[in-house]
Amino acid sequence: MCHHESLLKRYPVILGVPAVLLIGWFDYISGQEIGLSLFYLIPIGLVAWLASSWQAVACALLAGGCWLTADYLSLRHFSTTVLWNAFTLFFIYIAAAYLVNHLRRDRDDLQILNNELEHAFKREAELARTDVLTGLPNSRAFLEVLGREVARARRELRGLCMLFLDLDDFKSINDHYGHAEGDEVLTKIGTLVRDVVRGGDVVARMGGDEFGVLLWHVPRAEAAHIAERLTARVAEFATQYPKARLGVSVGIAWFDDPPDNPDEILRAADREMYEEKTARKSDVR
Fold first, then answer.
1. Who's near 189: CB < 8 A, 6+ residues apart?
2. What per-residue confidence (pLDDT) applies to 205?
3. Total-model pTM
């Protein structure tokens, strides 16, 4: 089926020319009593829609010629009326061929433009929800996912857990190694966090040197283990920058009954992170 459709699109005259000739034959045998001039528009329109403009015009000229031949064979002479009708039909057929062909081309151009616009809109929507530096979802995307997960958790009567990460003394990276290396560190930390958590968990850069992690269906104890692994991996990574005092503070917000507002979950995780950061600075865990 697809092969035949492709063949007709590549060679529309395969169908158009025989159709014109067939209509011309019926036009001849029907004589002057039945006019079939309108039926020529069907193959003309088909060729004009599937083929190029010159092929469409050729089909229109063939249709006009067939009508004129059939009319002549019926009358056996050319009158002024016949010639005027022939001129009119030639004009109508050629105009119809051009019109249909241009409509098809405008349709194709519009479809291409729509596809480009759709791609651009999708790209813009993706960029609006993606952190340019790390390639992770940004805070906007994270809150959207968090909102959907809150609704699902409340519907399924299950808990919800979020981690909030803040790099300790990140400024010392910029001071000792430069801002370009600081950006590289943020990118590597984002990759590190994504490698530690599970495949279904959502990792996002919330802004600056802060990251958020939404843990899916995780037991409370497992959330604490993930936070410990993140702390250990960042500490291991920080050995590459001995002049800095890079570390990470992780806040864990666990809810048996999550609130409706995702911002409350974010604030709770942020509050836990600051308590952890204060404890780390005081050497108290």
1. 167, 211, 234, 237, 248
2. 95
3. 0.61
